[in-house]
Amino acid sequence: MRFADVLRGEAAKAWTLRSLRWTILVTVVASLAFCLVDAGPVTGLSTPETAGVYAMANFSFFAAIAGVLIASSEYGGGQLTTTALAVPRRGRTLAAKLLLSAIIATAQGLILAVFIATIQQFPLGEQSVYATGTAGALLGSLVLAVCSWTAIGILSTSIAVIIRSQTIAPASMIVLTFGGTPLMMALPIFQYLPTNAGVLMYIDRANQTSDWLNPPDITVPAAGVTLTAWCIAAVVAATGVLRRRDIGARQASTE
After folding, report:
1. Contact between 170 and 64 (Cβ < 8 Å)
2. pLDDT per residue over 138-193, tens digit each?
3. CA distance 10 to 150
């Protein structure tokens, strides 16, 4: 079976998941609602170049949930055994799931990024990044934020394959997403957690972390490398676990 056929099959299975469809829909609705409510004159720690960008960190758990659902949906009812029988090359199945997860997470991130780049900026008028010619700073941050969402999706799918739990896997990623920042504020070592490294790729550190007791000192390139390393390690681990896991395929027979 060609990889394109495997990918098409994984996409068809994903489309049948009501929970995944709801996650994507809620991502769109929540992103739009936030930007509509939050749009207005910049105040506090925000600047026109960073207006709304922190929402990319706050809402990144949507990418984690979608990534977990793509893998965890087959744990019940023997679907994983059926998949293994249809596609004996398990590495190809995992690759298709990871690619699908990356596509969905990227789409989720792009939706919020587009809302931030438009809805958040329009009320600023002459102060907007488009009027002042500083759009590059905002768009650059949003591009890195979308890349971070893509990595979170891949990481979440890999963790779901490793843990093989429909509750522990999403709970772990949500805790990392929400609990990472307090940990990072307490001890600098936690800036190397994958979700924290992803946030440090695009957050405005000068205004939003400078007053911390232990402000992060990891550079943007180093944060990107850290997040990439976590993803590679998770994918390698997931590949090894899936190839060696007894999921009943060897015990099945056809007549």
Report:
1. yes
2. 999 999 999 999 999 999 999 988 887 777 877 888 888 877 788 888 888 899 99
3. 18
Average model confidence (pLDDT) for the chain?
85
Reading the block at residue 192, the tokens are 């190397």
For 71, the token pair is 């893998």
Whole-angstrom Cα distance, residue 114 to residue 129? 14
Q: Collapse the DSSP code of 128 into the 3-class scheme (helix H, G, I; strand E, B; otherwise coil) and give the result.
A: coil
What would the two tokens of residue 118 be? Answer: 């438009």
What pTM was computed for the model? Answer: 0.88
DSSP class of residue 218? -
pLDDT tens-place string over residues 26-67: 999 999 999 999 988 877 667 888 888 989 999 999 999 999
- Using CA atoms, how far residue 25 sits from 30, 52, 62, in Å, is 9, 20, 10
Structure tokens at 88: 């004996």
Helical residues (DSSP H) of the chain, grouped into ranges? 3-15, 18-38, 55-58, 61-72, 79-86, 90-118, 129-132, 135-163, 168-186, 194-199, 205-208, 220-244
Gap between the terminal Cα atoms of the chain: 21
Q: What gap in Å lies between CA 221 and CA 49, rounded to an integer?
A: 20
Both tokens of 201, joined, read 């790729």
